[in-house]
Amino acid sequence: MTTFNQVKKRCLEKLELYVPVVDRVHGDSHPEFHDVRRLFEKVNAKIKEAGTGKPELDEEFSQLREITDNYTVPNDVCETYEAVYNMLAELDEAYRA
Length: 97
What we know:
Blueprint: H1 4-26, H2 32-50, H3 58-67, H4 79-96
C-alpha cells in the first residue's frame, strides 16, 4: 500500500503546477473548480506546515469529495483536469488509509 508521504512526494509538485492552470482554463465552464483550487491550496499549506508529520485534512478531503462527486471527471475537460482529480483522489485515499 502506498503511504500518504509517498503520494504527497509524487503528486504535490505537479498539483501545484496543474491546479492554477486548470482553474484558469476550465473555471468559467466548471465553477466548482474554483472551490477545488481553494481547498487544494488549504491542503497544500497544511501539508507544508506539518513537515514530515501528518496534517489534519479530514474536512478538506470531505469537501473535495463532495464538490467533485468523488473525483468524477467531467466529460468536456482536458487530460490535465483529469490528472488533477486522479492525483487528488490518490492523495485522499492514501490519507485515509
